[in-house]
Design a protein that fits this description.
This protein is of the alpha/beta class. The protein is 47% helix and 11% strand. The protein has helices spanning 2-16, 30-45, 71-80, 89-92, 102-116, 119-126, 148-151, 166-169, 194-234, 241-244, 286-293, 315-325, 355-360, 373-381, 395-405, 418-430, 433-446, 452-465, 481-484, 487-522, and strands at 20-24, 49-54, 65-69, 134-139, 156-160, 250-253, 269-271, 299-303, 331-335, 347-350, 364-369, 386-388, 408-410. The strands form two sheets. The protein has a seven-stranded parallel beta sheet, with helices on both faces. α14 links the parallel β11 (364-369) and β12. The longest helix has 41 residues, at 194-234. It is globular and about 100 Å long.
Length: 523
C-alpha cells in the first residue's frame, strides 16, 4: 500500500513539474504583443519557465522569464515600410480590404523573412543550451515558423489571434465549407445567399491557388536555406517543409462562440479568447476616475485601436466628429494620439487609454470601436454594447457578427460618417436591448468549465504530458488534397462514363455494319 502511494506521488509530481516553454508572436504590433504578453503572464502564474521572443520586452525583469529582444528586426521593418501609407486610416476608407491585397501577402512574407534572417534570432536558435518542452507560436498568415519546433525536438502549438477561419484551420484539419463559413477578410456574414456563397467559394479558391503558386514556393525556399543550416549545426533531422507545417499538436484560438462563429472545430483546436484580460481590473488614473464618476449622463468611449490612429483621419472627418460629439449630453472619451484645437467641453482626449479599466466602469454607456479582436473580446467580457466602425482586416467579420448577435450596430466608415453615426448613437442610447444582449452574451462567454487563462495552461500542459497529443489530431491530415475532395472518385466516374460511351458507340457501329452486310446479301 505504501509503495502504491509513493508511485502515485511520483506520478503526480511528474505532471506538476514546471515546464520550459517558448512563446513567439512574430507580428510586431502593439495589439499582438498584448496577446503575447498575456500568454506569458498566464504561463508564469502557473509556475512555468518562459522564453519570450518579442519586440516589446517588459519594463522590468521577471522571475522565470527570459526575453529574446527582436527590436532591431522590428526597427528594420518600420524603416522598410516607413514611406508606405497603406495602413493609414484616411487611406483605407472606401478601399477594398487590404487583407485581400497582394501587398498584404508580400508584407507577411517580408515579416517572416526579416525575423528568420535576424542574427539575434538565429543565434538563439543555434544555442545548444536552449531546450523546450513545447513552443507556442502565433500563426499570422505564414506557416514557416513551424520549423522552430523540430529544431528543439518538441511539440508545436499554434495560436490564432483572430476568429477561426479556413486558412488557419487547414493546418490542423481541413478547409471549412465556404457555403456557411466566410474568409477572415470577407464583408459577408452567414447565412449566405446564392451570390454570397459563390463569392466566398471564388475568394477561397483564388486565395488558395495564389498562395500555393506565389507565396508557398518562397517560404519553402527560405525554410530550406535557413532552418536546414541551423538543424545541421544543432545535429537534428529537419522534416520537409510540406511535412512540418501540418505537424502541430494543438491550435489555440483567440475567439469564442459568444463573440464569433461557432465553427465545427477539430479536437485539437480550443477557444481561449479573453485570456489576456487581467484577472483583476486595474484602477483608473485619478483624472479619468473622477471624469467617469462625475459624468451625469454617462460616458461614451471611442477608440480606433492601437494600429489604426484617429490622428490619421482627414481634417474634415475630425471636425465633423467633434461637431457631432458637441451635440451629445454624454461625456466622450476619445483615444486620440495628438492634440486638437477647439475640443468641445464634453470631449476628453487621451493619447493612451486604459481600455479594460474604462470598459469595466459602471458609468460607461457603450464603446465605439474599430472592431479588432481584442476590443471585441473585452467588450463582451465587460458586457458593454458596441458601435462597430470596421476599417480593414478581420474587423468587418467581427463587427458583422456583433450586429448579427444583437449587442452592437455596424457602421460603414466614410468621410461623412457622422450622417450614420449620430442616428446609431441615439439608437444605442434609447434602446436597452443592446445592453441586455451584451449581458446575455457576456454570461455565455464567462460560463465555461475553466477561465480562458486556465484553459490555455491546461491544454499546453496536456500537449507536453501526452507527448504531442497525437490522440487529438484530425484524420483529415492523413489524406492528400485529391482524396479529401473525392477527385480520384470523380476521375473514376469520368473514366467509367467515357468507357460506357465508347462501348455504346462500338456496339452501335457494329450493329450498323451488320445491317449493311445483310442488305448486300439480299441483292
Amino acid at each position: 500500500m505504501k509503495l502504491q502511494i509513493i508511485f502515485s506521488l511520483v506520478f503526480l509530481a511528474s505532471f506538476t513539474q514546471a515546464l520550459r516553454l517558448l512563446v513567439f508572436f512574430p507580428m510586431m504590433s502593439k495589439s499582438h504583443s498584448i496577446l503575447g504578453q498575456g500568454m506569458v503572464s498566464r504561463l508564469l502564474e502557473a509556475g512555468h519557465e518562459v522564453v519570450h521572443v518579442t519586440a516589446f520586452p517588459r519594463d522590468k525583469p521577471q522571475a522565470n522569464l527570459t526575453e529574446i529582444n527582436l527590436i532591431e528586426a522590428s526597427n528594420r521593418m518600420k524603416e522598410q515600410f516607413q514611406g508606405d501609407d497603406t495602413f493609414k486610416l484616411k487611406n483605407l476608407i472606401g478601399k477594398e480590404n487590404v487583407g485581400d491585397s497582394v501587398f498584404f501577402v508580400y508584407m507577411t512574407y517580408e515579416i517572416s523573412k526579416n525575423i528568420i534572417e535576424d542574427q539575434t534570432f538565429i543565434k538563439f536558435l543555434l544555442n545548444p543550451n536552449e531546450k523546450f518542452d513545447a513552443v507556442i507560436i502565433e500563426w499570422f498568415f505564414s506557416d514557416i515558423f513551424a520549423g522552430i519546433a523540430p529544431l528543439f525536438k518538441c511539440p508545436l502549438i499554434w495560436f490564432g489571434s483572430t476568429e477561426a477561419h479556413w486558412q488557419i484551420l487547414q493546418v490542423v484539419d481541413e478547409i471549412p465549407n465556404p457555403s456557411y463559413s466566410v474568409d477572415i477578410f470577407s464583408v459577408s456574414k452567414p447565412p449566405l445567399n446564392f451570390m454570397e456563397r459563390l463569392r466566398e467559394l471564388y475568394r477561397i479558391a483564388k486565395k488558395y491557388i495564389f498562395i500555393s503558386l506565389l507565396s508557398t514556393p518562397f517560404e519553402r525556399s527560405l525554410y530550406n536555406s535557413v532552418f536546414s543550416d541551423i538543424a545541421n549545426k544543432r545535429g537534428v533531422t529537419l522534416p520537409s517543409y510540406d511535412e512540418v507545417i501540418y505537424n502541430a499538436s494543438l491550435l489555440l484560438i483567440n475567439s469564442h462562440p459568444s463573440i464569433g462563429t461557432p465553427f465545427r472545430l477539430p479536437q485539437n483546436a480550443k477557444y481561449i479568447a479573453g485570456y489576456h484580460i487581467d484577472r483583476e481590473v486595474k484602477p483608473l488614473p485619478k483624472d479619468l476616475q473622477k471624469l467617469m464618476d462625475e459624468a451625469k449622463h454617462g460616458v461614451i468611449y471611442f477608440s480606433m485601436g492601437s494600429n489604426l490612429k484617429s490622428e490619421d483621419m482627414s481634417e474634415s472627418m475630425k471636425k465633423s466628429l467633434l461637431a457631432m460629439f458637441s451635440k451629445l449630453k454624454q461625456t466622450v472619451i476619445w483615444k486620440f494620439e495628438s492634440d486638437l484645437d477647439k475640443v468641445p467641453a464634453n470631449v476628453h482626449l487621451v493619447k493612451w487609454a486604459p481600455q479594460q479599466s474604462i470598459l469595466a466602469h459602471p458609468n460607461l454607456k457603450f464603446f465605439m470601436t474599430h472592431g479588432g479582436q481584442l476590443s471585441t473580446t473585452e467588450a463582451i467580457h465587460f458586457a458593454v454594447p458596441v458601435i462597430g466602425i470596421p476599417v480593414a482586416a478581420d474587423q468587418h467579420v467581427n463587427m458583422r457578427s456583433v450586429a448579427n448577435k444583437g449587442f452592437g450596430i455596424y457602421i460603414k466608415i466614410t468621410e461623412d460618417i457622422t450622417d450614420d453615426l449620430y442616428p446609431a448613437i441615439q439608437e444605442m442610447l434609447q434602446n436597452p436591448s443592446y445592453k441586455s444582449k451584451a449581458k446575455e452574451l457576456s454570461f455565455i462567454y464567462h460560463n465555461r468549465p475553466l477561465t480562458p487563462g486556465d484553459e490555455l495552461v491546461f491544454w499546453t500542459e496536456h500537449v507536453v504530458h501526452t507527448r504531442g497529443a497525437l490522440h487529438l489530431r484530425s484524420p483529415a491530415l492523413q489524406l492528400p488534397f485529391y482524396q479529401k475532395f473525392f477527385l480520384d472518385l470523380l476521375i473514376l466516374i469520368l473514366v467509367a462514363i467515357v468507357l460506357c460511351v465508347l462501348v455504346i458507340r462500338f456496339i452501335r457501329n457494329g450493329s450498323k455494319g451488320t445491317k449493311k452486310t445483310k442488305k448486300v446479301k439480299t441483292k
